[in-house]
Design goal:
heterotrimer; A mainly alpha (103); B mainly alpha (628); C mainly alpha (163); A: mainly alpha; 3 helices; elongated; B: mainly alpha; two-stranded antiparallel ribbon; 75% helix; 3% strand; globular
Chain lengths: 103, 628, 163
């Protein structure tokens, strides 16, 4: 039998939390960005699953997902621009070393 | 003579010295006038005051009946407390008015000579005027609040005048000591005032007396109030154990000692008890306390006066002793008896002080061991001093005899033990006064200085006082004085003067006084008995007397230094720093430490911030799950 | 049946790839595992009958985003340093676990109103109609375009070398 809504949602939760864990735990800024992408992918799975199971005719979730992908792409672009600018200043993108905001 | 003095003039009796003080202290001081003008102003004011006081007293003498001069409302606290500034003119007041103004006037005239050349005459006369005003206010006040204010003002003037030569540390310390010790007594007085106000609802003296008579105030309250008032009197009148300030107060100028510490301020305590006497009459406990402390003080001070070398110290202890007599009289005989002795004592004690001042003016010292033979060199001083000593010793027909007689007879009839103490004191009084006389004026003058008689301006007041020391007692020859004060009965003139000898007590007291004088003559004039041998024989007693029973050491070293300074105050100090400051500091420190801890949360790393964010999300998630 | 197998394979791949991104210290491998994750996700979209979205995912995410990431890895010379972990591992693990558990519990407890209507196929035309049709989201699309424009400009400005 086909996988039900709950299974997709559990999958989405798992991928999201792995991405979350990585975003908090990793030191390299690029890897943090990668993990954010993973989180967004997980969210997309959930959205599409909702669209498929709850509103199959209106495709609500899928339209939402389109926008999420667009925004994710934009965000990666800007994020990488920031990382590169930071790298030029400090020659490192280790987030443990970027702590000018401390007390 | 018009008996009724117009009311406005009565107000001027205290008003004139006050005006003199204001003018002297404000105007003349600003003009920096340093000359005798200060004295003239003050003397003029006091003289007019004296004239009015005589007028008032004369009116009272012939028709005694208390007239209260209605005053004006001064303070009104919502109807609960209404203080009126009014005056009482009754025989008690009348006598005090005459005494205060007359002695003040004579002392000021004397000061013109004694303090001649001093640079601060302005300050001197200003404060003597202020003192006169305060003393007059004290005796004329009709409510306890004004009385207390004048009481404190008198203490302030005493402080100012004892410490007149404030550059001398001994004088400054003596002034402080006087103030402190009288303050201890004032605490009792204030407590009594509060107690009376809460029981009787009024501070008016007449009101309090009627409340007490009417039973509004409970008898326990009456006793406590009377004891509190007596505590105030103990402070001001230097009764044991609050007497230590008076000998030290001799550091002030001698005219000040004559005025304040012989005749008037120290008599304020006696006056106060007299004014509040109806309260005391309702409390036998208080009366007994007054009498006992009076007798003890008299005896105690007399023993110390026996061994002092400084004339003024002998006179100071003599004053304490005589004040003890007055208290004894108050306790056993009543107001009239004590006031009569106050009246005569003021005159001969002021005279004796002036005499001591005169001696000092020419020899430069008060130490009797350096004197002798002044009888030939200073005849007038010697004569007046001897008259004063005879009066103090209670020799008929001088004033002191009559007033002491009254006290001794009331003691004999009521408390034999106290009577014995008073009689022994009479012996000692005669002895030590004539010791002074013979040491100072008898024998030969030792040093090379050439002492000369004092000028007229100093001698005239002394002469006036000498006349009074002789004759003041005769004012009561008919018993009139004590009668208007409420005691005794009137008799004819001759009966009063000579009839006294029909009572054996008169012979006994004369014999006692006479033997004292004779012993002094034998020891110090003829040198038949060696003073040194007697001192050696009774050396333990001599040492105790000489060190004034070590009371000063007790107060200053043990109670003052150890108990209060190092003990109690130290405790308070440490409590303040550790507990109070510590608490405040700890609260601030707690703030500091906690903020440091929280601050460490911001390490500047984004990942840490997102963790905290996640923490919040997890908390919300849990809450949502568990609360459905 | 087939769908079930496909689902399981794809989901395990996605999860493993994601886990690999987190565990790997080699930066390059992390980036490649990201690609794998995206591809697996695209497969999952297919199982959900979202064909357009799967294609979009592959083109945009894999073709542009992942490539961009790999290029920037090259540029920052971070390859040598790799991708270590910081010290927040344990609290992050527990908190993430709590959040995941909360989501799963919420999912399990809710009664989803599952609709029996079969999905539309192909989705592109349906999607186009929904997005740009009468009651559509045209404005949002335009705003999306503007956003992308702003992104490009912003990136250029950020990286401009000041003379």
């Amino acid at each position: 039998m086909a996988p039900g809504l709950e299974q997709y949602l559990v999958l989405s939760a798992v991928i999201f939390s792995i991405g979350l864990f990585g975003a908090i735990t990793k030191r390299s800024a690029v890897v943090i960005l990668i993990c954010i992408e993973i989180m967004l992918a997980g969210v997309n799975i959930a959205l599409v699953a909702f669209s498929r199971f709850i509103t199959p005719a209106e495709l609500t979730g899928q339209s939402f997902s389109v926008f999420v992908i667009v925004v994710a792409a934009a965000e990666v672009a800007v994020g990488l621009a920031i990382i590169l600018a930071l790298y030029r200043q400090r020659h490192t993108i280790d987030t443990d070393k970027i702590d000018l905001l401390k007390w | 003579m018009m008996n009724n003095i117009p009311e406005a003039l009565i107000w001027m009796i205290p008003g004139l010295p006050l005006a003199a003080f204001t003018v002297l202290f404000v105007v003349v001081r600003a003009l920096k006038i340093r000359s005798n003008l200060n004295g003239y102003l003050s003397i003029a004011a006091t003289a007019v005051s004296f004239a009015f006081s005589l007028w008032t007293a004369a009116g009272l003498f012939s028709s005694p009946g208390e007239n209260a001069v209605a005053g004006f409302e001064w303070l009104n606290l919502g109807g609960k407390l209404v203080i009126e500034l009014g005056l009482i003119i009754d025989p008690l007041t009348g006598i005090m008015l005459v005494v205060v103004t007359l002695v003040s006037l004579l002392v000021q005239i004397y000061s013109l000579g004694y303090m001649h050349g001093s640079k601060s005459l302005n300050r001197y006369f200003a404060f003597i005027s202020l003192f006169t005003f305060a003393m007059l206010g004290l005796v004329m006040a009709d409510n306890l609040l004004i009385m207390f204010m004048c009481w404190e003002l008198v203490g302030l003037c005493s402080y100012m005048l004892i410490g007149f030569w404030y550059h001398r540390p001994a004088a400054a310390q003596a002034a402080r000591k006087a103030f402190f010790i009288t303050r201890i007594g004032d605490f009792g007085f204030l407590a009594a005032i509060l107690l009376l106000f809460s029981s009787a609802g009024t501070l008016d003296v007449a009101g309090i007396h009627s409340a007490a008579a009417g039973g509004v105030i409970s008898s326990a309250a009456i006793t406590w109030a009377a004891l509190g008032i007596f505590m105030g009197a103990m402070g001001k009148s230097a009764q044991f154990p609050l007497h230590t300030w008076l000998p030290d107060a001799m550091e002030g100028p001698t005219p000040v000692s004559a005025l304040i510490h012989a005749a008037t301020m120290v008599a304020a305590g006696v006056f106060l008890v007299g004014r509040m006497y109806p309260l005391f009459e309702l409390s036998p406990t208080a009366l007994n306390t007054v009498a006992t402390i009076g007798a003890v003080t008299a005896l105690f001070a007399g023993t110390i006066a026996l061994v002092m070398h400084d004339i003024k110290k002998v006179l100071a202890y003599s004053t304490i002793s005589q004040l003890g007599y007055m208290m004894l009289g108050l306790g056993l005989g009543g107001v009239a008896v004590a006031l009569f002795h106050l009246f005569t004592h003021a005159f001969f004690k002021a005279l004796l002080f002036m005499g001591a001042g005169s001696v000092n003016h020419s020899t430069g010292t008060f130490d009797m061991r350096k004197m002798g033979g002044l009888a030939r060199l200073m005849p007038w001083t010697c004569a007046t001093f001897v008259i004063g000593s005879l009066s103090l010793s209670g020799i008929w027909p001088l004033a002191g005899f009559f007033s002491k007689e009254e006290i001794l007879s009331s003691a004999l009839s009521n408390q034999p033990v106290l009577f014995a103490m008073a009689l022994i004191t009479a012996f000692m009084t005669a002895f030590y006064m004539f010791r002074v006389v013979f040491l100072t004026f008898g024998g030969e003058y030792q040093s090379r200085l050439k002492p000369h008689e004092s000028g007229r301006i100093m001698l005239i007041p002394m002469l006036v006082l000498a006349v009074l020391a002789v004759s003041a007692g005769w004012l009561n020859a008919t018993g009139r004085l004590t009668a208007i004060l409420g005691h005794g009965h009137e008799h004819s003139w001759i009966t009063g003067l000579l009839g006294i000898f029909t009572h054996p007590l008169a012979w006994i007291s004369l014999a006692v006084a006479g033997s004292g004088i004779t012993l002094a003559w034998a020891m110090y004039h003829k040198r038949w008995i060696s003073a040194k041998k007697i001192a050696w024989t009774f050396r333990s007693a001599y040492t105790v007397f000489f060190h004034k029973y070590w009371i000063d050491e007790l107060y200053e070293k043990y109670i003052g230094a150890r108990f209060f300074n190092n003990g109690l105050f130290n405790l308070f100090n440490r409590f303040d720093t550790t507990v109070i400051d510590g608490t405040v500091n700890d609260i601030a420190g707690l703030n500091l430490k906690s903020s440091k801890a929280i601050r460490a949360l911001h390490n500047g790393r984004l990942t840490r911030y997102s963790l905290v964010f996640l923490f919040g999300v997890a908390a919300v998630a849990l809450t949502v799950i568990f609360t459905g | 049946m087939g769908l079930q197998i496909a689902f399981w394979i794809l989901s395990i791949t996605a999860v493993a790839a994601a886990a690999g991104v987190v565990w790997q210290t080699n930066l390059f491998r992390a980036a490649l595992l990201l690609v794998a994750c995206f591809l697996a996700t695209a497969g999952i979209f297919v199982t959900l009958s979202a064909d357009f979205l799967a294609a979009a995912q592959v083109i945009i995410n894999v073709g542009a985003v992942a490539v961009l990431i790999i290029m920037s890895i090259m540029l920052t010379r971070e390859v040598t340093r790799g991708s270590p972990s910081n010290r927040l591992g344990i609290p992050a693990f527990w908190l993430t676990g709590i959040v995941t558990a909360a989501i799963i519990v919420a999912v399990a407890k809710t009664s989803w109103p599952v609709s029996p209507v079969p999905p539309a196929e192909p989705t592109s035309s349906a999607l186009a109609l929904i997005l740009m049709g009468g009651n559509g989201f045209e404005l949002v699309i335009h705003m999306g375009a503007l956003l992308l424009l702003a992104t490009i400009i912003g990136a250029i400005v950020l990286l401009k070398e000041s003379k």
